[in-house]
Specification:
This protein has one domain: 2,3-Dihydroxybiphenyl 1,2-Dioxygenase, domain 1, CATH 3.10.180. The protein is 16% helix and 34% strand. The protein has five helices and 16 strands. The strands form two sheets. Strands 2-3-4-1-13-16-15-14 form an eight-stranded mixed beta sheet. An eight-stranded mixed beta sheet has the order 6-7-8-5-9-12-11-10, covered by helices on one side. It is globular, with a radius of gyration of 18 Å. The model has no long low-confidence stretch (mean pLDDT 97). The structure holds zinc ion. The site of zinc ion has 6 residues, from strand 1 and strand 13.
């Protein structure tokens, strides 16, 4: 019997300039770069992972930065917003910080029982900070943001859908999400214990443009599974629901299966183990270029082809 999904494992998005990506997610948002590796399917480009100190599941946003990549289109069939949890009372700090650092943002506004601050990353990726009353997760304290205001991990993601109903059937059916709230064109679902990190909002947008994945858009959303046997049980459940699901793929830091929900958003189910300390100690996570064993023989060529990258203090 498979265990319930505990929440978001990671979100993967597309970017253009890798250094601008590092500067924003470490220097502005205050996350830790927990892994610098390459796109295993295209080792000429980076794959960058950001999160809390260890890159716990539920805190990890990852990017494929392609220098010079064109902007994608945010629209239907995509996760169009990625939301992070910050402590209640922090949005004043964040509004000032984003203004001072020249980040495009809106003013905080209410949604359900919380306040939300919307802003854009350098590629136009739509992000939110949600002021959450109770989030027990510890922030990364090595970044530029004081711990009292720092990001705790994800709050949730928003999926934009032409037909919210077919997406709801998959979320509430095989994936086990619960419909917990609704306001206007937004339906909120939770999974596992619920709360920050275990939420997804579905926005019904029958007249939205179709999304096109490139820089500034989310590529996929990954959900958590406890371990490899649990993931295999999930694979079976997804296939039984009539969705095409890939074989298990080895992503070094977790194992992955992928499928599209009927509205077109690419979902992944990823295992919690082994995590990012698999190939470097927690103290030095993200400091060196890490390659999977099958790419190590090509390390020199790969390194020479990648642009230099630094985490600036
Ligand atoms: Zn993924």
């Amino acid at each position: 019997m498979r265990k319930p999904i505990e929440g978001i494992h990671h979100v993967t998005a597309m970017a253009s300039d890798p250094q601008a990506n590092v500067d924003f997610y470490t220097g502005v948002l205050g996350l830790r770069l927990v892994k610098r590796t390459v796109n295993f399917d295209d080792p000429g480009t980076y794959h960058l992972y950001y999160g809390d100190e260890r890159g716990h599941p539920g805190t990890i946003i990852t990017f494929f930065p392609w220098p010079g990549a064109r902007r994608g289109v945010q629209g239907a069939g995509q996760a169009t917003v990625t939301s992070f949890s910050v402590p209640q009372g922090s949005l004043g700090y964040w509004t000032q910080r984003l203004s001072r650092l020249g980040v495009t943002h809106e003013e905080p506004r209410p949604r359900f029982d919380e306040e939300v601050l919307t802003f854009l990353d350098p590629d136009g990726l739509r992000l939110e900070l949600v002021a959450v009353a109770a989030d027990p997760r510890s922030p990364w304290e090595g970044g530029p943001v004081p711990a009292e205001h720092a990001v705790r991990g994800f709050d949730g993601v928003t999926l934009t859908e032409w037909n919210a109903h077919v997406t709801e059937e998959t979320l509430a059916g095989p994936l086990g999400f619960r419909r917990v709230a609704e306001h206007g064109d937004r339906i909120r679902f939770e999974v596992g214990a619920g709360g920050p990190g275990a939420r997804v909002d579905v926005l019904a947008a029958p007249s939205a443009v179709r999304g096109h994945v490139s820089a500034g858009t989310v590529h996929h959303v990954a959900w958590r599974s406890a371990d490899e046997p649990d993931q295999l049980a999930w694979r079976e459940a997804v296939a039984e629901a009539g969705l095409y699901v890939t074989p298990v793929l080895d992503r070094q830091y977790f194992k992955s299966i992928y499928f599209r929900e009927p509205g077109g958003v690419l979902f992944e189910i990823a295992t919690d183990p082994p995590g990012f300390t698999r190939d470097e100690p927690v103290e030095s996570l993200g400091s060196g270029l890490k390659l999977p064993p099958w790419l190590e023989p090509s390390r020199q060529q790969i390194q020479d082809a990648l642009p230099p990258l630094e985490v600036r203090p």
